[in-house]
Amino acid sequence: MICAIISLGEGDNLARKKSNGKAKKRIFLFFVFFGTVIASLSYSFFSNINKMVGMSEKKTELKNKLTSLKEEEEVLNSDIKKLEDPEYVARYAREKYLYSKDGELIIRIPEED
Length: 113
Description:
The protein is mainly alpha-helical. The protein is 83% helix and 0% strand. The longest helix has 82 residues, at 2-83.
C-alpha cells in the first residue's frame, strides 16, 4: 500500500510540474506582451515629447520674427506717411539725389571718418 501511495504522489507531482510549466509559460507571455505594450507606449510618448519641444522652439523663433516684422512695418508705415508730405519728398530728393531748386548751387562736402 505504501508503494501505491508513493506512485500516486509521483503522478501528482508530474501533473503539478506540467501545470507549473504552463503557468510559467503563461506568466512569461504575459510579461512579454505587456512589456511590448509599455515599450511601444513609451516610445510614442517620448517621440511626441520630442516633437513638442521642437515645435516650442519653432514657436519662439516665429514669435521673434513676428516682432521684428511688426517693428519693420511700423517703420515703413511712418515712411509712407512722410512720403505723403510734398515738402518732405522735395527735401529728401535734394539731399539724396542732389536735386536743386532754380538758382541753387549744390556743394557736396565729404564726410570724415
